[in-house]
Amino acid sequence: MDRGKVVSNALHAQQLGKRYGAHWALRNCNIQLPRGCIAGLVGNNGAGKTTLLHLAAGLLRPSTGSIEMLGTPSHNMAMLLPHIGFVAQECSLYRQFTVSETLIAGRKLNPAWDESLARSLVDRFKLPLKQTIGKLSGGQQALVAIIMALAKDPELLLLDEPFSNIDPLAKHEIGKVIMELAFERSLTILISSHVLADLEALCDYLIILAASQVRLADSIEHIMEQHKLLIGPSESFDAIATAYPVIQASHTGRQSTVLLRTDEAVSHPAWEQQDLALETVVLAYLATQESSWEAHASSILPSFQKEVFS
Amino acid sequence: MIWLIWRHYRWMLVLGILALLILMALFALNVSTMNAVYQQPNEAHCLQKGDCNLVVLPGLTTRTWYSLVFQSFPLLPFVVGIFLGAPLLAREYEKRTHLFVWTQSMSRTRWLSTNLMLLGSAVVLGFGALSLVATWWSFVQDATFSFSPWSTFMIRGSVLVANVLFGLLFGVMIGAIVRRVLPAMVITLVLLIPLQIAIWNGYPYLFPPSSQLEYNWKIVHGEVVGILNDRLDDLILSRETVGADGQTPINVLDNPCPDDKLTGEALRQCNEKNFHELVKYHRFNEHFWPLQLATTALLLTLAALCTGVTYWRVRR
Description:
Chain A: InterPro entries: AAA+_ATPase, ABC_transporter-like_ATP-bd, ABC_transporter-like_CS, ABC_Transporter_VariousFunc, P-loop_NTPase. Chain A is an alpha/beta fold. Chain A has helices at about 50-55, 75-80, 100-110, 115-125, 140-150, 170-185, 195-200, 220-225, 235-245, 280-295, 300-310; strands at about 10-20, 25-35, 40, 65-70, 70-75, 85, 155-160, 190, 205-210, 215-220, 225-235, 245-250, 255-260, 270-275.
């Protein structure tokens, strides 16, 4: 777990699953996050984002499979906790504490606490030290929570929907701080959000979760390389579909649009390659896999799309 | 960690210490009032009759204090279990603060251990001091008017401290299972009532009682000459009618001495031979402290069980 020593992945999940009674909140989850990456975790509500982050933070125990953080298995959480920063989706700070008391709690509970970083961030965001957490706005509460996690000086930072309450200006500012620290301290970050736009600006790695399963986990660069959007005549669609794995296809009249996943270059005289947006890929994975995998889940898809585009 | 616990419980601690000091002062005043009677022979006649009722403060006599203590002290395990024990974990789960405090650099088992150690020690020290004063008071009290020392068995000595500690850890366990403050408090109350009733009624059976034949008869030269009252410092567990051997209970309906067949001296002798009263009891100076130890051990075992369940729930 020594810093700078590249020994293992920052996060490594193998066949990871979490079950509540008969309901699987997460299953067959295989992820390898390289150290130093900033990974986005997308998926609609109830897709298992929070479950995965809670498993990584040691708040939950896996029902099946295993999860390792920084090369240490999750059952050795006592050793891991000092190296993992976690920000929960809802405000989980003590509401009756003042900001200043919350910082004292952080200092008392964390041996590697970076007081000067905490103070400078509190100043930068003009947070009132004497105010109790309960009286701060939702955005300010989220900021304090993020500052607490950063000042712990972690190697792996887990952020569960950190931007949902923050106004756009502060969102931009905190994004900048996170990027600076990630660069300075070779921090690995896993951020969940259902707003793809928030993640696109920050992340270089993407994990797509839907219906409790990982659909795609790869670097954004590789995702964009690997996926191809093609437009061509419907009559030669079968030739394309048998030659390459099709993620999504739509047909309008005699023209077809297909999204392919292949490392090879696709060259077919009748088919023309289009510019591809990350959003298209994400939606394609959620849409196609949902409808073919679990028909009942497709009914909740439109609401997700609205959120993604908003 | 200690700072965090201090920050959470500072007002409760101040309040607790204040209440403890006031209670200790009132106990001490009662004792000194009762002790003063021994120095004043003209008032000491109440000692023989066993009905002393002395004025401690305006509006407070030694008897009202006795009944106040007698009625309120049994509630102490409930108060501690409901207001200190049940919210300990339930509040963290309900306010979601467990997500914050269990993802700092300290494992949640250590967080729980530190909390239980500090709260447990505070409870043992505070109620230990209270029990010490209450026990001292109750011995003086026993001497000045006629109440059985057994009536205050559960609220003096080590039993009081162990019972409050059990209440605390029982509440913590319910909080760990229910995870909501108000339901945890209500369930703690509802489940503690039968448990406390069982302990109050069951403790005399933790230790085998003494037994005696013709406990209430005064017998001179083999003749019953009078009826005796129960001894005040005995806790009577059972009275039953036994046969000639002094052990086997007999059914009074199967009368071995039918009074339509026997009369006079023959009936009297048959009765004397076949009917014995067997009384099982604990005598104060023989069994009080052994029973205190046995009850304390039982309560500590129950408290340890609750703690085990709490750790199991929290680690899941």
